[in-house]
Amino acid sequence: MTSPRANWKGHLRLGEITCPVALYTAASSSERISFNILNRKTGNRVRREFVDSETGDVVEHDDQVKGYETSNGRYVVLEPDEISAAVPASDKTLAITAFIPCDEIDDVYFDKPYYLAPQEMGEEVFALLRDGMKETQVAAIASTVLFRRLRTVLIRPHGDGLIGTTLNFDYEVRPADEVFADVADINIDKEMLDLAAHIIATKKGSYDPSNFDDRYEEALAELVKAKIEGKPFKKIQAPKASKPSDLLQALRDSAGAAQKKPTKRKSANSNTTRKTATKSGKSKSAGSSRRKAG
């Protein structure tokens, strides 16, 4: 089995205590089905190009430069070396600034999770910090430069290691009041609340991620597999939405149905189907390299 590749390597520091660590991607979209854009007439792949909005000429890479619009059609040009000089320099240190209760931060500030694991010669200090946080039930707030940006990171114990979650800055999080300001203040009838509580109680369970499918990816996998094999693909009919005119009666009906209907579990071969289609798609396009748009 190939060892995972670290996204970042540095040191975790608490005061005068440091240990070498590495960050690994915890959530990835690399297994999703990806498509190339083709010319329908020739079947050839198309290439993205940057074009001057006024002249229509193609702008080569060396002539592309970043610009900030100050007014309509007016820009401040920022050269690559100017941007590099303005970005904080990375000292490869994940410095812990405080310990907080594990549930203190609102989930809306969570950005992207990373596994945080010790490097050689850092296992003892790493274990001390991990077990110390477990014992006191706290999380750590740290900061460092990740991928050329100064980031705040929430660090929590996770099994034998730690989870480091990058946090959104305050200016990046939209205030909830902007969205909820016009939500009407409605007094719900006691019977409705009781029925809703009953329905919720019948649906109580636990979260097991393996019980949930990415239905979009699964549908794409089935479509790709059918096209590769030259078989017809049956379109899925959209379910008809019911429109209950009486909310109380709809709650009563739902409460009765909740006691009779078992929870549906995912099909056992859903992941197998997706992997088969992905593998088949890759074999058809072997030898062609993928390019990321700049």
UniProtKB/TrEMBL annotation:
Pfam families: Ku
Keywords: DNA damage, DNA recombination, DNA repair, DNA-binding
CDD domains with a match to the protein in the record: KU_like (cd00789)
Regions of compositional bias (Low complexity) in chain numbering: 273-288
InterPro entries according to UniProt: DNA_bd_Ku70/Ku80 (IPR006164), Prok_Ku (IPR009187), SPOC-like_C_dom_sf (IPR016194)
Gene: ku
GO terms of biological process kind: DNA recombination; double-strand break repair via nonhomologous end joining
Entry function: With LigD forms a non-homologous end joining (NHEJ) DNA repair enzyme, which repairs dsDNA breaks with reduced fidelity. Binds linear dsDNA with 5'- and 3'- overhangs but not closed circular dsDNA nor ssDNA. Recruits and stimulates the ligase activity of LigD.
NCBIfam families reported in the protein's UniProt record: Ku_bact (TIGR02772)
UniProt xrefs under SMART domains: Ku78
Organism: Aliirhizobium smilacinae
Family: Belongs to the prokaryotic Ku family.
Subunit details: Homodimer. Interacts with LigD.
Name of the protein this chain belongs to: Non-homologous end joining protein Ku
GO MF, one annotated term: double-stranded DNA binding
Domain (Ku) ranges: 56-184
Stretch list, region Disordered: 236-294
Gene3D superfamilies with a match to the protein in the record: 2.40.290.10
